[in-house]
Amino acid sequence: MPKHARRRRLLATGALAATGTLLLTSCAGGFDEASAEGETPTRIVAAIPTDPTSMDPIRSGALVVLSVFFHTFDQLVAITADGELAPKLATEWTPNDDLTQWDFTLREGVTASNGEAITAEDVAFSYQTILDDPTGENFAYLSSVSSVEAVDELTVRFTLNSPFSAFPRNTSLISVVPADTYQEVGADAFAQDPIGSGPYVFESIQTGVTYDLARNDDYWGEAPAIEQISLQPVSSDESRVNGVLSGSLDVAPIGPTQVSSVDGQGAAQVFSALSNGVVFLGVNSTSGVLTDVRIREAIALAIDKDAITGGLLGGLAEPASAMLAPAVEGYSDDVTDPGFNQERARELLAEAGYAGESIPFDYATDGRIPLSSEVAQTIQASLAEVGITVELRGADQQAHTLKIRSKEMQGIYLNTWAPSTVDGDLPLTDFYETAGNNNYAQDPRTAELAAEQRAVTGDERLDVFAELLNYSNEQGYFVPLYVPMNNYAADPDLEWTPRADGLFDFTQTSFR
């Protein structure tokens, strides 16, 4: 899979310019003040956009909480910043011939921060407890698991209900708890005083305010340079930027429109890296004029993606040719899209007998896609240039998401997909399999190919991905638009590599 290094931009030294807003002057935390002047800082304060629901990794599966769990618990495997799979609690993993059984070999001598040994029994307990609650937030990642067992002290065996080549990636999202401690204190008490085997331990938890972590001196792996981490929920985009500029935050996610306000100020630097998501147009290919593949192709041909990424988004995104981002396993350079060709779009519309019928265009006015209204308006203008009429239908994110999940879209709609496993299986299931929220076409060929990629590995799997995604582009079932960047404001001396999935991992982080 191609590697895409992060794009990092150091800002020029200069006086802090007035921003016209109040600065976030302090962020509450349980630690003492940072290192004395002249010393290299060993504490990092980072903003997370929302408050996690629980510190119990068995019950909590929201993506934001993984920024905490990656530091305080072990998972069987890790996904690196650029989307690769790497050992963590497990040193190796091996499938049987038909990919329906996976054996994971664990490290020896791993203990939780309270001294309890972490063995295969703890792994089996953690997974089985999740499997016992189909309503839980983590169950979806394990829906392919039929059973889990400890074969011996250092071997865990997963038996699946069907072949699944990407199963190890799903284990990167499941944290392992010390079974005896968890059962002794109970889930509620464990969430108040969590115990894990990760490189950090919980120092204090102030719900809604801060989650303070301290380096685990008994950690089995390499000791991180950062001794203390404070993860603080800050929901306001403006407050996150101002927190970094004022020095009360060391790093915080920011939106594309905020990058220019930080640029040029010596108080901060900007990190920008391609994400694991794709913003796309969904198409109800069973509705009205969209049943004609020529009209669907004309829509794809009419949209100038460069105008969106280079103009509207200021270069903080890259045009997409496939429904998977470059960082995602399954991405292939062999996937091509129709390109930008207004003349050909007009020819196809004429061949199809399109007479200007209005096509509904749904989008969210807030939430998951920055500048979503402006993106929708730009697309509307592009389509109008070739004679395609769309009716803009803006709604709040919650209502828009509900329409997607209920398959209520009548025309085209703006959406995005970023797989938490950084693997193509999750989005392809949603795009092309029968029960998928975004699958209007119900094409048997796409369902067959989506299933086929689970039963093969390596280059053979990539070939299936390429065949499916090229076929999808040819049929106009979706229009991939662009891959957005994750953007961060940070302390000018921070040495850090952002992850494609937008989560925090400071185990390889330091200050200059």
From TrEMBL:
Organism equals Pseudoclavibacter terrae
Choose any GO biological process term that the UniProt entry carries and state it: peptide transport
Q: Where is the Solute-binding protein family domain?
A: 84-438
Which keywords appear in this protein's UniProt record, sorted alphabetically?
A: Signal
Where is it found, in Gene Ontology cellular component terms? ATP-binding cassette (ABC) transporter complex; periplasmic space
* One annotated GO molecular function: peptide transmembrane transporter activity
Q: Which CDD domains match?
A: PBP2_NikA_DppA_OppA_like (cd00995)
UniProt signal peptide: 1-30
Q: Which Pfam families match?
A: SBP_bac_5
Q: Which PANTHER family is this protein grouped with?
A: D,D-DIPEPTIDE-BINDING PERIPLASMIC PROTEIN DDPA-RELATED (PTHR30290:SF38), PERIPLASMIC BINDING COMPONENT OF ABC TRANSPORTER (PTHR30290)
Recorded superkingdom: Bacteria
The identity of this protein, by name, is ABC transporter substrate-binding protein
The keyword Kinase is annotated on this UniProt entry: no
